[in-house]
UniProtKB/TrEMBL annotation:
The chain crosses the membrane at residues 6-29. Keywords: Membrane, Transmembrane, Transmembrane helix. The gene is SFRICE002098.2. This is SFRICE002098.2.
Length: 214
């Protein structure tokens, strides 16, 4: 009877826990993105419908709470993303090395029968980790884009509507003081470019591994 190794089960449990935490984290960022889009829409509607001073205060407090929530999420999950990105990088390199060794053994006709499913398993695992990073980059890029749209909307309202001048000035000031892209341990930003850099690193080290084999 087949009995999986304890360390294998423990590793699988850790990876599943990490994936579930990542999904929850991305859901929070997606929720903040939706709230920011609604806030931006409400701000643009004030140009047509106008708003009272109390409504302007509520708009500012709402924007402030969105940025505070983003800061809390960013601080709490920064180490998690750091671990995940490096785990993806090193695990992908190990899987690529396994594929290279398997291909070399296949060429030399020394592949065992119980290793026939290894390429499929390794390929699926690598793709799964890369897809996770794709979603991570896209979700954060959507939030950055929503934040940029809110900033631009404030500039538009500020130039066209004198009644909302104080609100927009406060929002712009808060944006400059509080908002920044997620930067993992001061090393790199999490955005679309981070995914391209990760793929570039994997490609470069894959070429190095191929040079050792051939």
């Amino acid at each position: 009877m087949f009995k999986p190794a304890i360390h294998g089960l423990f590793y699988l449990f850790c990876m599943m826990t990490l994936d579930c935490t990542t999904i929850f984290f991305l859901s929070l960022i997606k929720l903040l993105t939706d709230k920011l889009l609604l806030w931006n829409r409400a701000l643009l509607l004030t140009q047509k419908n106008g708003c009272s001073r109390e409504y302007s205060k509520e708009m500012f407090f709402t924007f402030e709470k969105i940025l505070k929530c983003y800061g809390i999420v960013k601080d709490n999950y920064q180490r998690l993303i750091f671990f995940q990105i490096f785990e993806v990088f090193f695990q992908s390199l190990c899987n690529i090395k396994l594929l290279i060794d398997y291909s070399n053994d296949y060429i030399n006709r020394t592949v065992a029968d119980n290793q026939s499913s290894l390429p499929t398993f390794v390929f699926v695992w690598v793709v799964k980790r890369i897809v996770t990073q794709v979603f991570l980059s896209l979700v954060f890029d959507s939030f950055y884009e929503a934040e940029k749209n809110s900033y631009n909307s404030c500039l538009i309202v500020l130039s066209n509507n004198y009644d909302q001048k104080r609100l927009c000035k406060n929002v712009l000031r808060l944006h400059r003081a509080s908002f920044s892209k997620l930067r993992i341990c001061g090393m790199f930003y999490v955005d679309v470019c981070h995914l391209l850099c990760l793929i570039e690193l994997l490609t470069n080290y894959t070429i190095v591994l191929l040079q050792f084999v051939f």
